[in-house]
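Give me structure tokens for this 385-residue protein.
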Amino acid sequence: MKNNSENQISIIIPTYNESTNIVKILESIFQSIPKNIFAEAIIVDDNSPDGTGKIVEDYLKNMKKMTNYTIEIIHRKAKSGLASAILNGVQKAKSNTIIVMDSDFSHPPQIIPKMIEAFKQYQCDLVVASRYITGGNIQGWTTKRKLMSKIATIIAKKGLGVKIKDPMSGFFAFKKNIINGLNFDALGYKLLLEILVKTKGINVKEIPYTFENRKFGSSKLDSKIIIDYFKSVWKLYKNGKIKTPNEKRNSVHFLSKAARFFTVGASGLGVNYIISMLFTSGLTELWYLHANIFGIIASISTNFILNKVWTFEDRDFSRRKTLSQYGKFSLFSSVGALVQLGMVFWLVDSYDIAYPLALISAIATAAFSNFILNKKLTFKEKLWS
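Here you go.
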């Protein structure tokens, strides 16, 4: 069959420990590909301990030669991340139309023809299989997993200015030429998010699909992936789309003050510990709860002074103003503590989220709300400045 750029596709499938799924997904892809399309499937395996790569090699030896479907495998020496695996596959791809999908059937191969059709119908550069537009759905996820996905999506849309409904989708297709000249961090597992932020003027189309949670094998989502996601968002925020110079200055000022506020808060933990220990030893030897009260008062006081002078750069120490600010700061610190306790209980008890993750989320939420309240109400600053 004679091929041209319009009827060729390259399907990139990163794998790690997918021995129970890989052959079935390859066969399902073949059954889903239109007969007039030439497809190459490129498996990028990160040296899976369960022998996924070897299974593919054996399958290739026994596979009948097909006129419109080929399979290749890239063996990597170690588990080096999903985004970098996709980029390795893109480098190997012969077609300008790239489709990225998982091998665990959470991304149904039956959607591939709809992606190909979307390119022709809408003359777009990027097609995203979306769980969150009309007609899209998620099956088999726990409430906890859905909540985490929603939070990650909100962060991407609000923090990075991404306009589509499902920027966290791992099932997407794009024209290879749109990433020419782009430098990718390849950090974490959401290459689509990098493409959306770093490309300019591209036409994006979302099509609905139903995400089905894997039936075999184990999920790759863990704490490292979550941390990598936040690192990636921060890098993209620093280097991503900024509309005006003034917007950049405001965002930098806001984040700088937030960083100072959180640094002061961390120092307050040290002050609290030192004062509490001093009052439970030496000459005083107070009861530990009484000593802890002195520690809390000392940490709130030092936090207030440092934030007034350093974070918010307020040098006016007139008695009335300072006492009023100190009262508000102490009140908001107490409210923050209650928010933290309530959120930990809510996440653990209602959503069965692990205590360490719930605690980190609660501390971050309480600290951020504390910062916003003090910025706006205690030190009378504009919120976004």
